[in-house]
Specification:
The complex is a heterodimer.
Chain A (H helix, E strand, L loop, with lengths): L7 H136 L3 H18 L1
Chain B lengths: L1 H20 L2 H8 L10 H9 L4 E5 L6 E4 L1 E6 L4 E6 H9 L7 E3 L10 E4 L6 E2 L2 E2 L4 H23 L12 H21 L4 H22 L11 H17 L3 H8 L8 H45 L3 H44 L9
Antiparallel strand pairs in B: 1-2, 3-4, 3-8, 5-6, 6-7
Helix pairs in contact in B: 3-10, 5-6, 5-7, 6-7, 6-11, 7-11, 8-10, 8-11, 10-11
The chains are: A mainly alpha, B mainly alpha.
């Protein structure tokens, strides 16, 4: 039964030994280590947190840049479409203008042709008049070669004038 | 090729070891002295090994004993004096059949067997003086305490001039930090989140003191300290004091005026009051019994070799390797137990302390 009865001497030495261990370690041992462990844990937690935040920020920036890029692409295609549209309009306008100008030129040419034609016709008429007068003179001269013919003619003309009166 | 060579070498060493174990008892048998035939008193041998002693015995018997006699410090109440002398004097006096300054070691069969007793002139009997001798366990305690202080202060020194952003320690300090963190976070913070600083020191001390002492106790030739009830008694008393001195109002209210129907209140108070004492007593017995039983089982397994040596060489030849294998297995198990018991003691202490400082208005949470 001696195993189960605590020995006073050993209790005393245990108190002394454990007491010394307790006071020395509580004062100089554990606090230093546990404080450092706590601080390092906090440091690691903080670092993880800041890393997470940095990652989030990075992701946000990436998202933003992607959005920006997309917007730029849209703008680019918009500009391209606009340019196409404009080109088409310009070409159309130019065509219309060209058509109008052509017609105008054509019109003017026609008018000029008309004028020239009338001129030519008037000219021809005068020529024809002159020619016919000349022809008539020649014909007249031919038929009034003698004085008698001339007197007959005068008489007739006088008669005609009298008849007219 | 190299691997094969190595394996072959290992096998040869193993065979050699088994071979050395096998024939030895047979030769020993033939040369054995007649007194070896008398048989061994295993009970006293085991009790002697796991008990306390006034000398640090290493090996050998009788003339060949290799042991360090330890100092004896006793106070005689009758003479009112302190006596301080070496155990050697008592041994020498015993051989001559005398006492030394009125002291002797009580023999087997007498009361206080194996302890220092003093002859009382008044009653004419051998009585026990106040015995503060530095016994084997006391010396072991002091050595372990010094080792523990050196280890922890050595680790603490590493942390000087270190910032939290510095690299974590490696090697031994890293191992210690891992174990300290385990106790600190998993045991202390988990159970007593509201008063970590107040109790961390004691619980860390208790864990590492028990763990280190358990491990050192496994070294052959060392003292069986945590398997001694006086040591576990002091540890349990410390837990008892920390639980009850730190206990707040709610804790005492829970004990003496628990939240149960009226007629149950007195019964609960009695049960809870006894609970105050049974908890540390359970701690004390658990640690003591586990370590003591482990040592006893190991000694018994080794003892099998010597018991069978006296029965028959064949049985001995079979039993020796078996008991060695079992002893190795048990030693590994004891290493585990050394940790588990330290963990359990600290964990339960932390749980009891945690229950003694319940959070105010706990039901509000």
């Amino acid at each position: 039964m001696s195993l189960l009865t605590p020995d006073i001497g050993l209790i005393f030495w245990m108190l002394v030994a454990f007491g010394v261990v307790f006071f020395v370690l509580v004062k100089f041992g554990w606090p230093i280590i546990t404080q450092m462990v706590d601080e390092r844990k906090k440091y690691i937690d903080d670092s993880l947190e800041s890393a997470r935040q940095a990652n989030e920020k990075l992701a946000k920036i990436q998202e933003e840049s992607a959005a920006l890029l997309k917007q730029a692409r849209e703008q680019q295609s918009q500009i391209l479409a606009d340019a196409m549209e404009q080109r088409k309009q310009i070409v159309e306008k130019a065509q219309t203008e060209a058509t109008i100008a052509g017609q105008k030129i054509l019109e003017e040419a026609k008018q000029q042709i008309e004028v020239e034609k009338e001129d030519a016709i008037r000219d021809i008429r005068r020529q024809v008049g002159l020619l016919s007068v000349e022809i008539a003179e020649k014909v007249l001269r031919q038929s009034l070669k003698t004085d008698k013919d001339q007197m007959a003619m005068i008489d007739r003309l006088l008669d005609e004038m009298d008849n007219k009166k | 090729m190299n691997k094969n060579n190595k394996a072959w070498k290992m096998l040869r060493i193993l065979l050699l070891a088994v071979g050395m174990l096998l024939p030895y008892p047979m030769w020993a048998q033939s040369e054995a002295e007649p007194e070896a035939k008398e048989g061994i008193d295993m009970t006293s041998l085991i009790l002697g090994h796991i008990g306390d002693a006034y000398e640090w015995h290493f090996w050998g018997e009788g003339e060949n004993t290799v042991a360090i006699p330890l100092p004896i410090l006793v106070y005689s109440q009758e003479r009112g004096e302190w006596f301080f002398f070496s155990f050697e004097h008592l041994e020498e006096a015993e051989k001559e059949g005398k006492d030394y300054q009125g002291f002797k070691i009580a023999e087997a069969g007498e009361p206080n067997a194996g302890k220092v007793v003093e002859y009382s002139r008044a009653s004419g009997e051998w009585v026990r003086p106040v015995d503060l001798s530095l016994t084997k366990n006391a010396v072991g305690l002091i050595i372990n305490s010094i080792i523990l202080i050196c280890i922890v202060l050595g680790c603490a020194k590493w942390y000087k001039n270190k910032k939290p952003s510095d690299e974590a320690p490696r090697g031994f300090v890293g191992l210690m930090e891992m174990m300290i963190s385990m106790v600190y976070y998993d045991i202390i913070k988990a159970n007593i989140p509201q008063h970590v600083q107040r109790y961390a020191g004691y619980l860390l001390c208790a864990f590492f003191f028990i763990f280190l002492t358990n491990l050192i106790g496994l070294i052959p030739g060392s003292a069986n300290i945590t398997g001694n009830i006086a040591v576990t008694f002091v540890l349990a008393c410390c837990t008892f004091l920390f639980v009850n001195l730190g206990g707040n109002k709610e804790y005492w209210k829970e004990i003496f005026w628990a939240d149960v129907p009226g007629w149950l209140k007195p019964i609960m108070a009695v049960i809870e009051f006894f609970g105050i004492f049974t908890k540390p007593i359970a701690l004390m017995i658990r640690l003591f019994a586990n370590i003591m039983a482990g040592h006893a089982a190991l000694l018994a397994l080794i003892g099998v070799i010597f018991i069978t040596a006296n029965i028959s060489p064949v049985i001995n030849g079979i039993m020796t390797p078996l008991s060695v294998i079992f002893a190795i297995f048990l030693d590994c198990l004891e290493c585990l137990v050394a940790f588990i018991q330290a963990y359990v003691f600290t964990m339960l202490s932390a749980v009891f302390i945690g229950l003694s400082v319940p959070k105010h208005h706990a039901e509000g949470h």
